[in-house]
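User: My instructor asked us to take a sequence, write out its structure as tokens, and then describe one feature of it. I'm not sure where to start. Here is the sequence I was given:
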Amino acid sequence: MDPVNEARTLVGELFPEAWAALLGGSVVTGRRTPTSDLDILVVVEGLAEPYRESLRRHDWPVDLLAHSRTSLGVWVERDFARRQPVLARFCAEGIVLVDRSAGRLERLREELRARLESGPGAPSQAALDRARYVLSDALDDLRGATDPGELAFIEWNVVQETARLALSLGGRWQGGGKWLLRELRAHDPELAEALLRARQAPGELAEVAGRVLERAGGRLWEGYRVAGDVFHRPLRHLTPAELSEATAQSAGMRRLAAISDAATGSRRLWMGQTHVPPATRSADHHHGDSETAIYVVSGHPVFVFLDGGEERRIETGPGDYVFVPPFVPHREENPDPDTEAVVVIARSTQEAIVVDQPDLRMR
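Assistant: Let's start with the prediction itself. The structure tokens for your sequence are:
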């Protein structure tokens, strides 16, 4: 059975309104095996929760990834940040099964191809030192191993860490499992084959890994030090006069930053105030990957969002609390014609994230 037709039929049955769908993985390359499955990515407008599901279609095992446009973008960026762009490759190189994006899917694919081609760039000095330390430590274990079982695990660890270091030095993307080997073969096929030959020969493996380690600056173990979290720092006090408007803003309201990285050095928390003038409303927006907690100080602000496709309004007063989950489009309104509404906001990210939206629909 043709995998492309089978995948397209499956998407049509399960996701008739899909914004886009792609087929990726080994079945679209020359690496297809008898156990290859149909790796399908489906993008559905407004999908509240991305998920992964394994199922069987006729004689095909299917690995299904379902995302909204928003969650796909977030997961792609997470992959780029860890230098292992699995979803980006899927989007850029997969076969298009469905495209109702009015050209946006192809623009996304072109952008991702360009980013993949440019590579992640050189690693930071801290990341390079960490890689040198890890491989140096693994080589010490390799030289001292006497237990055959432990030796087998150590050998494979040395192979992987050597491959990762070589890819980092070359400014190349990383991979996991078989994709680590594929990335290394694309970058340095001679090194890939040398590691495979030496993976059960400790002396030869140490030589191969040692040559890569020398290219990175040599062994690093004695004197290597990494600072942990600071446990004793002074408390910080800010007065109302020290609050700053240098933070993300939405039309129809004024935000003032209080506790932030810039102001206090906070790493995982942002706090501030929002002032909503009388008879105004904010733009529709969400706060990205940030969780948001709101405490109403004064006035009677209204928080509006969609629930089951219908607009829902939460009317509040002083002393009330409101929780806004990540990525949920909403807006604040102050229907009072005379009194300003003031709220205190706490977010789980260091800085305020405000992404304006054309409406309240999930994307």
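For the description part of your assignment, you could build on this observation: The chain has a mean pLDDT of 92. Try explaining in your own words what that tells you about the chain.
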